[in-house]
Amino acid sequence: xxxxxxxxxxxxxxxxxxxxxxxxxxxxxxxxxxxxxxxxxxxxxxxxxxxxxxxxxxxxxxxxxxxxxxxxxxxxxxxxxxxxxxxxxxxxxxxxxxxxxxxxxxxxxxxxxxxxxxxxxxxxxxxxxxxxxxxxxxxxxxxxxxxxxxxxxxxxxxxxxxxxxxxxxxxxxxxxxxxxxxxxxxxxxxxxxxxxxxxxxxxxxxxxxxxxxxxxxxxxxxxxxxxxxxxxxxxxxxxxxxxxxxxxxxxxxxxxxxxxxxxxxxxxxxxxxxxxxxxxxxxxxxxx
Length: 288
What we know:
Keywords: Endonuclease, Hydrolase, Membrane, Nuclease, Transmembrane, Transmembrane helix. The chain has seven helices and nine strands, in the order ααααββββαββαβαββ. It is α/β, with parallel strands linked by helices. It folds into three domains: 9-99; 114-222, 3-Layer(aba) Sandwich (Trna Endonuclease, Chain: A, domain 1); 251-288.
């Protein structure tokens, strides 16, 4: 896929910040302002001798740059943070729309950029770290770079509505994997693959995902991610239930060490009340 060309270093900075979580951009904005503001308000050294004039000029220039930078740097960082937050919201909204729909052509009605975002979010939900390719110029066909357990995987996305992905695309990705040291690769399409492409990928560390397979994979990933909080709640409930079970566990008889059972007093001042009695009663009359 073609990439948007950048026009200035400031845009490069914004794009770099946008790759980070949005809160990191906010932290960088605050830290940048505090640091540059401190430099901007620092007093200039006095020119006491001939050699000190150069220091004064350098200090004046640094103070001027810090005065402007204390506003420019936070603005760039906040812009990147806003883009990061928007992308996160867009990814989740796109994922929700796709996984809740049963329409067979749901993947055909989106742009190639939305398709890449959707695929990336699906891999994120499976525990991969996803880096999207924002570089201008040739990209070797790589749209996403995945990392998991210290290993690298490459992903090529093909948003083709009317064509089948042939073996040249799969063979190209396999060559790039070898050149870049990736342990595996994925070719993902909204359409289908030719039998030749499937035959080439068979037996290699390549996985081909067509439209129906991708749709099922996204639903499974979304369901697994939604179930994790519930699993945590169930684990917490089990943890809380353990002490209660321990409290109600039958104690051992203090006389013969046999397990005790709950009994109900039938007469006397404690009639109607429960107590622990030895299971060997009447041979043993131990109580607790």
